[in-house]
Amino acid sequence: MTVRVEMGKDTGGAPVSMDLEELLATRLLVQGNSGSGKSHLLRRLLEQCAGQVQQVVIDPEGDFVTLSDRYGHIAIEASEHSERDVARFAARIREHRASVVLSLEGLEAEGQMKCAAAFLNGLFDAPREHWYPALVVVDEAQLFAPAGGGEVAEDVRRASLSAMTNLMCRGRKRGLAGVIATQRLAKLAKNVAAEASNFLMGRTFLDIDMARAADLLGMERRQAEAIRDLQRGHFLALGPAVARRPVAIEIGAVETSARSSSPKLTPLPQAAAEDMKGLLLAPAEPEWTPPTPAPVPTQMPSERLIEALARSTPAPVDEVPVDPEEAAGRIADVLRDIVVDPDSTYRSPSVLYQDFLVRCRMVGLARPPLDLSGFVRRLSAARAGIHGDPDADWAQALDAARALPDDMLGPFLLVARAAREGLPCPSDTELAATYGTSSLGRVRRLLTYIESKELFVTRVDLAGKRSITIPRLGWTTQPSEVG
Fold it and tell me: Where is the domain boundary, 225, 251, 277?
């Protein structure tokens, strides 16, 4: 299937389009001085092919996060997460084919390079079964693939350059198509720039950059002056995905806009010099207090972001509705399989949630009606041996346990089940398995915490056997050994 993306019009007013499949195979390099329209060009490309291919944007200035409102991209603020989290997100992104914008705004140059390297390596190292085609757009690529050393540590520079080289040199076989934009070709590592087969060259003034741009476009040196005369938003294009001979393009309009914009002239205040001097040199107010800063928008925590990435996968067209009772049975079976798996005990809830979603798809449930919080509650109940809907069968016990976090429901329900059925009190080892830990000391601290909430009353008899009463329910376990 051939998909052509209209980028703008040539000097004669005819539309100029780009072959998306060819672009995925041959990559793209965009060059132009600040203000030449590079970001506008990238935005046009992303908007025109939205919905046709997965898009991953590495955004140093946070300008492309506005794509989320119109096209559903998931915006990740890198400054709110660790490098390890960012690498995990990259793996989830490839698995679930989510279109995302990684905003590096708020990070210093070295932090941006570290984060970009971790993210690109996470995309690159995804398992073979997740090698779906994706456009990987890197704005200001000279920051991440510098031609020479700079003020950052050498190991950081090497890691970032290696990740960019992998993207451009080896990414094609993994489905990753690099689209990189730079202000200056002279500042971009040559082995990164050389792997692109498509070029869009905007206005530039330095002779060294004009000469390199002319070489890439197959133009003679004396023709390079034309690059200096390009207007803002006009580019010379060449490559198998767009044109076999250099063609001038005026990039078309876009539907979204960046959070920042070019400075505009505004009228200066019309105040007399003496009045202005009085304003500037006026004494401070005796009780002046600084203004209250604007509230910082709450960022999406890592676990919620993982859930959003997982649920961003579009539902299959041929998905068959499942009867609610049958769906509930399938979900119970999936949870039972997860609990039986010995490796699941010490995995984090977010990782197990991904496993849960994959298993649900395998049994025909593309959209299981459980978010991350609901999954943790059901998993806790399943670990306690309760495989039905705990909200229906154990409403009384869950109401008593409202003061507890979701991850403590497993030990609480295990004790509640033993107490209701008159069974021996669960041992510390059994409680540890439901809590996802191997530390018996942590289990004892957990019991102390639950007692502090007046949910448990623990008794140890002279034989050293323990029994636990749940006073709000009037249930008591039989005595049993503690260990």
Answer: 251
Please indicate, yes or no, whether residues 220 and 328 belong to a single structural domain of this protein.
Answer: no
What residue ranges in 202-319 does DSSP mark as E strands?
234-239, 243-251
Judge whether 214 and 223 are in contact, CB under 8 Å. yes
- 10 Å CB burial of residue 348 (0-12, 13-18, 19+) is exposed
- The conformation of residue 73, written as its DSSP 8-state character, comes to P
* Same domain as 326, residue 212: no
Gyration radius of the chain's alpha carbons: 30
Using DSSP's 3-state secondary structure scheme, residue 86 falls into helix
Rounded CA-CA distance 112/110 in Å is 5
What pLDDT score does 221 carry?
A: 63
Tell me the per-residue pLDDT of 144-169, one tens digit each, with 9 for 90 and over.
Answer: 999 877 778 888 889 999 999 999 98
Phi, psi values for residue 184, rounded to 5°: -140, 125
**Domain extent for 427:** 322-481
Does some domain include residue 300? no
Helix (H) or strand (E) holding 15: strand 15-19
Q: Work out how many domains the chain is built from and give that number.
A: 2
CB 456 within 8 A of CB 403: no
Question: Same domain, yes or no, for 126 and 205?
Answer: yes
pLDDT per residue over 46-69, tens digit each? 999 998 999 999 999 888 999 988
CA 234 to chain centre: 32
pTM score: 0.57
* Dihedral Cα 79, 82, 87, 91, nearest 10 deg: -90
Please state at what angle helix 83-96 crosses helix 302-311, rounded to 10 degrees: 10
Question: What does the block give as tokens for 151?
Answer: 């003020």
d(CA 374, CA 376): 5
Which of 344, 341, 340, 334 has its CA nearest to residue 368?
334
Helix (H, G, I), strand (E, B) or coil at 441: helix
What is the end-to-end Cα distance of the chain in Å, rounded? 64
User: Could you read off the pLDDT of 388-417 as tens digits, one per residue?
Assistant: 666 666 777 878 887 787 778 888 888 988
In this structure, how many other beta carbons lie within 10 angstroms of the beta carbon of residue 438?
12
Last residue of a domain, one of 217, 251, 285: 251
